[in-house]
Amino acid sequence: MPSKTALKRCPWLIFTPGRFEVYREVSNQIHDIFHEYTDLVEPLSLDEAYLDVTENKIGMPSGTIIAREIKEKIRATTGLTASAGVSINKFLAKVASDYKKPDGLFVITDREAEAFVETLRIEQFWGVGPATAEKMHHMGIHTGADLKRQTEEMLCSRFGKFGHELYLFARGIDNRSVKPDRIRKSIGAEETYMNDLDDPAILTEKLCEIAGEVWRRVSKHEFFGRTVTLKVKYADFEQITRSRTPGGFITEFGAFWQAAQELLSGGDYSQKPIRLMGLTVKSGSWSSSFRNKNSIVNIYFVSDYRLPLPLAMLVQPFGPPGHERSQATGVQVPDINIVGRVGAALLHLDKVIPDSSNLFFRLIPDSFAPIGLKMRPLERKTRLELATPTLARSCSTN
After folding, report:
1. 3 state SS for 168-223
2. If pLDDT is split at 50, 70 and 90, which confidence band does 347 have?
3. CA 270 – CA 274 distance, rounded (Å)
4. Closest Cα partner for 279 from 187, 188, 202, 203?
5. Which domains can be identified in the chain, with CATH numbers?
6. Concatenated DSSP letters of 51-98
7. Distances (CA, A) of 273 to 4, 335, 377
8. How many angstroms separate the Cα of 245 from the Cα of each of 209, 233, 260, 282, 326?
9. Strand partners, 384
10. Element (DSSP H or E) covering residue 145
11. Spatial distance between the Cα atoms of 105 and 386, rounded to a whole number of angstroms
12. What are the C-alpha distances in Å from 111 to residues 116, 117, 240, 380, 381?
């Protein structure tokens, strides 16, 4: 329920401010527990993550035992309970983790998977929201068994690419791997206001506060994007977004703030007060990037697929703004160490690029061809999902 509606229904309601830093601190404690067992951890939110424990650090072949140990350590360390789901893939692990909340542990084995999925309500399928569920109900699809009777061609014709995933989910199949280091594509922040805002001066002041928080996160992660997006939700819940790409990478707060102000000034809010504002900085490239602070740089990257040997890799200089380098230039990365899906290398940039300390760099796999095009899919694995009620991590195990 929106806070404004709650306040109307209960005028004496007291709002307690959130303690995000405390949530983050406890989340990090839980994350550290996960890494005692595996480095293949894919965070979904502050309170949910997947873990792949097929090959784990303690040599334990049972995902169920690992899930139980993690639950016990979370309780001992933080005082929080956690719910865990153990199964052969992410879809089933997620379903299993929701099955016996709170403080539950549920296992779906390979042998049980397909029959179990047939009993699920269609709303329990990953990616099926209220609108999709309603559409399915009109088609006579209410359960996993109903979904399984549909052909792949029909599902794709009605639901596009998602139809292929639905066809596999209905058979207990999910080929998505655990992604421990997903490439960051954007950083943002937003704020919902208890009272709707229409005064230009107050709007600018509030936007500046959001911009400051976004830039703090940008600086912390050394993420420098190209596009600034303003999100606005009006008092009547209509939502709009506006974007601006100034040109080049945004590496200074002044350029970011100028773009944000220009986006806000493009609207008249006197007739439509604002209840929410947000700002996002988005990357213009799929590839991972980093800033060189020293002449020696450690390069570390993770792929969704097993990496082939040998792997051609270039490091391309591309900044700062005003010093853009041609995409045709690049430095060959020597001696890439590859283990499964992880690659690492040590590069002495000063030996190949004079005065490289102020440049930004982008990893270019296989002469500008995205890594994923060169990989073979991983074999089917076991997943575990953990979730605590307030501060949870859904983990995926192998």
Report:
1. HHCCCCCCCCCCCCCCCCEEEEEEEEEEEECCHHHHHHHHHHHHHHHHHHHHHHCC
2. low
3. 9
4. 188
5. 18-178 (3.30.70.270), 186-282 (3.30.1490.100), 289-374 (2.60.40)
6. E--SS-TT----HHHHHHHHHHHHHHHHS---EEEEESSHHHHHHHHH
7. 13, 58, 50
8. 21, 22, 11, 9, 20
9. 51, 86
10. helix 144-148
11. 9
12. 9, 12, 47, 14, 13
Q: Is 48 part of the annotated catalytic residue set?
A: yes
Q: Cα(41)–Cα(57) distance, rounded to whole angstroms?
A: 13
Tens digit of pLDDT for each residue in 7-40? 788 888 887 766 767 877 888 889 889 989 998 8
pTM for this prediction: 0.52
C-beta pairs of 152-161 under 8 Å, 24+ apart in sequence = 159/132
Task: Return the residue matching tokens 């690992």.
Answer: 66
Place of tokens 């072949």: 61
Q: Which of 21, 25, 36, 48 is catalytic?
A: 48
For residues 73 and 235, give the distance between their C-alpha atoms in angstroms, rounded to a whole number: 44
375: its two tokens = 């990989």
What residue type is 346 in one-letter code? L
